[in-house]
Amino acid sequence: MLSIENLTVEFGGFTLLDRISFVLNRNERVALAGKNGAGKSTLLKIMAGLQQPSGGAVSLPKGVSIGYLPQQMKLSDSRTVREEASLAFSHLQKMEKELEQLHTEMAERTDYETEAYQTVIERATDLQELLQMSGIHNFEAEVEKTLMGLGFLRSDFDRPTREFSGGWRMRIELAKILLQAPDVLLLDEPTNHLDIESIQWLENFLTTHSNAVMLVSHDRAFLDAVTNRTIEIVLGSAHDYKVNYSKYLELRRERREQQQRAYENQQKQIKDTEEFIERFRYKATKSNQVQSRIKQLEKIERIEVDEVDNSQLNLKFPPAPRSGSYPVVMEEVLKSYGDHLVFKDVTLTIERGEKVAFVGKNGEGKSTLVKCIMNEIDHGGKLELGHNVKIGYFAQNQAQLLDEEMTVFDTIDYVAVGDVRTKIRDILGAFMFGGEASDKKVKVLSGGERSRLAMIRLLLEPVNLLILDEPTNHLDIASKEVLKKAISEFDGTAIIVSHDRDFLNGLVSKVYEFGGGKVTEHLGGIYDFLDKKKLETLQQLELSTTVAAKMEKKQEQPSESKLSYQEQKELNRKQRKLEKQIEEAENKIEALEKKISEMEATLSTPEGASDMDLLQKYLDTKARLDQTMHHWEQLQNEL
């Protein structure tokens, strides 16, 4: 569907992408993995036609359309939600306008027999047919249906986009892309600014409705739920794995271990051969053997171990000054803007040392309550901070507020005071801005690099209450793990506003849910909360089903549950077909498992460990087994 051939991207003397090649096929959902600054966003922009590579080509069959969702969106604040989403049909609206102009021209002209007049008629006829096929007269209904599916209310349609938060703006942009129904979907950090429910909706959409997807995301749970292939960009090269993200990590580790063993065996063989040559080089009786060994040495195909980017974020929060036992206490806190109630009756107590999460849909008041704690906005009710509370605050838009014309070093030097100024280079090095990287201008940094730079400010003075509003947006998975470890080891208190389930898992012991003007406390971790929410949803579903059943009985509507003879026959046919496909899949799984077992036995020998072709076959066979297992699970679910 889309082919990348020897793609190269160079900046000055630095090669970002070095002759990478791959093909994106129909029904593939590919995770583009790699550290911040590896070139993932650049690759997506090139595939979307928004940037030109230094070399190589992107090949796209005629008629294949691409939908691209960037990290940073630029929506016009002059349009309403409906008008912005309707831009998906702007090409049809242009065609409709052209058709109207042609009709006017035909009515005014009198040269009916000329060739020019016939050309106008033919163009008008073609446009008429194209518009009828595209469903131009139904596009407004499609726009409304899609927006409501994404959680917008009918009353939101005519509100300006500027009134909506980042998460809702992301949904407007998603609505435009979904309405265009592109053949290839390119998504750059689609989960940034989305709440947990929206992420789960997007997971379902991508796995059931999309043709081909390539996405960049640092949400591991999202990647595992959506993708079935992973392409890793590391040090300019691309490594392709036909599995989801977690399986890719496992296969990458296995691949490097096998390569390392093969490399070590070969190095021993080379060393032994070189020692033999050196020892007997000048003995006439051994000259034939020496020459034979020299030729043997020349023919050896040297094994290389995949390069690994070992640059790593080193983050540790300074010791927290001791605060009072209860850093945050609220009683019946209320916040509204005019007639719009954000929340009321918020009563909660956060104890010293606790790590808690604020979760809920966008626009339900998470960031608003944070601003109340920061004393940035007025509120009703009682909100008190404990004795000696010193707050360290990371806002989700801080990375965008940096001065783009300043260098990395100057950005920190500008806010640093006292002895810290003598340690700026060390701090920057710990955040992977060592050497020449500290002299880069902010405007050339990737989203993740900007987030890291903004986070350095937290380290400039000791705090005992960390308030982190979406801290993982734009951070790669490795950096998120380092941040997670640093927060868990932090001896102060932490409030984390986040939608990242994997990041919150094992980090927080309490979840505060925002929704419907209320803040509800849930004891336990994030997955305890999500399990409880599913249970509540099921209970609501059962309740609504019971009510519906009573209504149906009351209205005495005739039952439609019985299938006709033809319908039952068709159902039985589908069942038999699925059962046969399941049996075939099970036989295939058994054969693949046997093949893998045989290859593992061979690879465990010194000779097998150095056979790179066998290693590749082993990895490919494991990937085929994973795909077959996934197919078998789908068939079982369908049955």
UniProtKB/TrEMBL annotation:
Residues covered by region (Disordered): 551-570
Sorted UniProt keywords: ATP-binding, Coiled coil, Nucleotide-binding, Repeat
CDD domains listed in its UniProt record: ABCF_EF-3
Alphabetized PROSITE patterns for the sequence: ABC_TRANSPORTER_1, ABC_TRANSPORTER_2
Domain of life, source organism: Bacteria
Domain named ABC transporter: residues: 2-260, 328-541
A GO term for molecular function: ATP binding
Coiled-coil stretches: 249-276
Keyword Repeat in annotation: yes
InterPro entries per UniProt: AAA+_ATPase, ABC_tran_Xtn, ABC_transporter-like_ATP-bd, ABC_transporter-like_CS, ABCF_ATPase, P-loop_NTPase, Val-tRNA_synth_C_sf
Stored Pfam families: ABC_tran, ABC_tran_Xtn
Family recorded in the similarity comment: Belongs to the ABC transporter superfamily. ABCF family. YbiT subfamily.
Protein name: Probable ATP-binding protein YbiT
Organism: Proteiniphilum saccharofermentans
